[in-house]
What we know:
Elements: E1 5-9, H1 13-24, E2 28-33, H2 49-52, E3 54-57, E4 60-65, H3 71-76, E5 80-84, H4 89-94, E6 98-101, E7 118-122, E8 127-128, E9 134-136, E10 147-148, E11 151-152, E12 171-173, E13 178-182, E14 189-190, E15 195-200, E16 206-210, E17 215-220, E18 226-227, E19 232-237, H5 251-273
Parallel strand pairs: 1-2, 1-6, 2-5, 4-5, 6-7, 7-9
Antiparallel strand pairs: 3-4, 8-11, 9-10, 12-19, 13-15, 13-18, 14-17, 15-16, 17-19
Helix pairs in contact: 1-5
Amino acid sequence: MKEGCIVVRGGGDIATGTIHRLWKSGFKVLVLEIEYPAAIRRQVSVCEAVYQGTTLVEGMTAVRIKDVREVDSVWQAGNVPVIVDPTGKSIDELKPDVVIDAILAKKNLGTTGDMAPLTIALGPGFVAGQDVDYVIETSRGHNLGRIISEGPAKPNTGIPGVIAGYSKERVIHAPGEGIMRNAAHIGDVVSKGQVIGWIEQTNGEKIPVEATIPGVIRGLIRDAYPVTAGFKISDIDPRESELNNCFTISDKARCIAGSVLELVCGYWMKEKED
């Protein structure tokens, strides 16, 4: 066992909030990702290291590794290792103290309570006390970040949180199947109806992707990413004054991270007492 090792499955923006909080608190974190992550808030997602080799989020550097034997050198450099491991083979090799499922797939993709002494899952798809030890509520509202020790989180509503009066309108989904070709960047200010990209189909047709509301592009899928109809590809913040939010961890991610840290610290305090 790597003493003090925490494995986080998933490196999207919500997961990154937790990873960053644990890293800042001095824990050694290993992130497991899929081969082609699909985060849209790429500026604040450690999964970008899968594509770029390294990525920086609020002072924390994530580094892609190819083998778990590389984790020590990355930790010693003060960084966070990221490995492509969708099935969790690294968990068997490292035998971590804590496993956190932060994939946010709205269903359990294989995380079990016997993977580590402490297991935590973020959001719906898990039952605390059955699939894992604890579940953290990820739905916005009064219970956001609540630690659930028995039972599930709130089911996914499919309705984004309201920002400046906009909810569903601020999230853009692919209008067809094909390859995404970006014509804009995260942080760009756009007007309603402005073309921010195209879906390039196999027959050569290009379907325009238009901004649904005016504002700042907060999230945008990677250029050349293959998408299916209805796939989430962009997120617009209607508040142009909040441009910097595109490049910082969200309030939601920080709230969830605090609950995870509470559980992790509680676990280690109990271990010391024993």
